[in-house]
Fold this protein.
Amino acid sequence: MAAAKNIIDENRASCEVVSADVLELILFRLPVKSLLRLKSVSESWNHTISNRDFAIAHLRRSKNSLFPSRKKFLFWDFSNLLELKNNELKPFWDHKINGYIVWQCCDGLLLLSNYDSSGNMFVALWNQSAKTYTNLGFPFPSPEYIFTCGINFDSLSKDYKILVTDLETYAVFSNKSGRWSELKEVKITIGEDIKSFPLDGHICWISQVEEEHSYTIEILLFDFKHDKFCKFFYDIGRLIFDCRLVHSPPGQFCMILADNFDKARVVWKKAGGEWMEFNDVPVPVMECHSEMHLTEDKELIFTCDCYGPPYIFTIYNLIEKESREISRPDGTFGPCHLFIYVDNLFFSGSTSI
C-alpha cells in the first residue's frame, strides 16, 4: 500500500511539472469520461477541466472533423437506444431514460420531461458522453401542459439556456446561474425577413396560414439572445398539400413543403448561411411520421411504413440527391428521435460547469 501511494504521489508531482498550455493541448484530445476521472489527479487538473472556457473549447473540438470516430448518430424509440453504424441500426449502450418525452438534442445534451411519483412534471437533461442525468425541476406552479421545450447554446453569454412555454407564459433556465427565470408573459414581435434572421434560437412551430388563396407559412421562434418570441411570414409562392418542421442541428432551420403525396420542397438555412431550397425531394408525406430529421451533412432522415412492419428508415442526401434505406432491428417500435453523440463537459456532474 505504501509503495503504491508513493508511485501515485510521484506521478502527481510529475504532472505538476507540465505547463498549463501543454496540459490543455493534451486534455483537449481526451473524451469526457476520461476527463472526469482525471479531475482527481491534482488541483490544477481539476481547475483546468472544470473551467467553462476549457469546456467550450473542448466542445468545439469535439464537434469538428478532428473527432470523426466519435460522431455517432443515435436513435431513441421510447425503449431502445440504437446507433447507426455501417448503414445498420444496432443497440447502443445502456441508458436510463425509459418513459421520458424527448424534446430536443443540442450538442449531445438530450432535453427530456417526465412526471415524478406525485404526478408533478419536471424537465431533465441527459448527457450522453458522461452518462449523467440532471433534474432541472419545473418553473410552472401547476404543470398541466407544455406546448414546447427547447435548448440552445447562447454564444454571446456562453451559456446553455432552456425554454419552457405554454404559449401564454414562459421561463428560461440558465446553466450559468443554475436556476429558472421568473415566469414571463409571451409577447410576440413580428419579424421582417426570415431569410436574414440568424436562427440562433428554438423554433416553436410552423403552420400554413388558413386564408382563402393564401400561400404563406407562419413561423414562430424564440430568440435566446434577446429573450423574445419572433413571428415570421414566408411566402411559399403556391398552394401546398402540407408543411412540416424538420428537427435540425442547433443554429439550423429546415421545413418540408409538400406539393403532393410523394414529392416535396425542402427549405434549409444555417445560421449566417445561405437560404437554400431543394425541389422534388422524394418524401412520401402520407407515409411518413412527423418525426423527420436533418443531419449536419444535409441528409434528411425519415420513417416510412410507421404504422406497421417492416419499419424502414430512409436517408436522403439533399446535395447528392441519393437515398438509401435502413431496416430497424426487431423489438423497436414507434417514432424515433435522432440525435448526434458529442463529447460535452456541460451538465456532466461538474460543480463548476
